Amino acid sequence: MTSDTVAPLSTSKGPGIDIHPLYFQYPAGELDVTVNVYENDSEAASGLGAMIEDASKAAINSHGAFVIALSGGSLLRALQTALIGRADIDYSKWTIVFADERNVPHSSPDSTYGAAYEALLRKLPIPASQVLAIREGLPVEHAATHYAGLLLDLPASTLPRTPEGLPIIDLVLLGVGPDGHVASLFPNRPETAHTCTSTWVLPIKSSPKPPSERITLTMPVLNASKEVAIVALGDSKAEVVQRALEVQSLPGALPVQLVRPSKLSWVLDKAAAENLRVNEWQEIKKFPRST
Ligand code: 6PG
Prior knowledge:
The protein is α/β, with parallel strands linked by helices. About 25% of the residues lie in helices and about 15% in strands.
């Protein structure tokens, strides 16, 4: 396990895709990131399970509930190993929300809720009322507003708020796409540049990754979370992991570099970490680490 400081320090503005420029900005200051590299994907999944267990215990001790946000894609496979059959986790206190979701029926093979239910949720003793799924059959703008309403309806004892009124999710689990997207926040898109703190969930109408209609938590919501873990397993993630951790991009070009909560961890296996030059991190502390 290697822990280090990772800090995109640029305040330069990113390019826009519109006639209106989009302003992306890396906040000033350094960021503490823990990078966990495991031998293989099953050890990474077990390490992720231990991390989730710790976060769950800490949240239940501090406010009597644990709110965890899930993403879709390959993350769900790791969560099966991490979470199924764990008698040491008090699932009755959990609330599951989705960091992003596709605007499709729950029965669609594209539904993250549907996939999470089949792979995981039906095997965990979490009360159904504590799994917040997208409302089916709505236009995507309404689906986003409705989903934000579900989050707003959670009492502050379950989902505390920051002084600015953002929700403090206990743990957000993110995958990362080859283009550096997280949740459904894609490179150089207006939704990724969104900074308004009163909108928690945005509609996405033309996602570059199908299906095209999605809803997503905003970057300010991800960054207000108590903790975020980015999970990237397998050699197909090696390139984006290296870019994210060692090469400073123009702000907005690699959304994963805009994820800056107070506690950030990466969960990698050796295959995903194979392009990292961790032994050089002691010398080159700041972004960009690449020469
Ligand atoms: C989605 C996701 C998305 C995902 C990444 C990584 O709906 O597509 O929520 O953000 O986590 O694309 O997915 P993979 O790990 O499957 O590549």
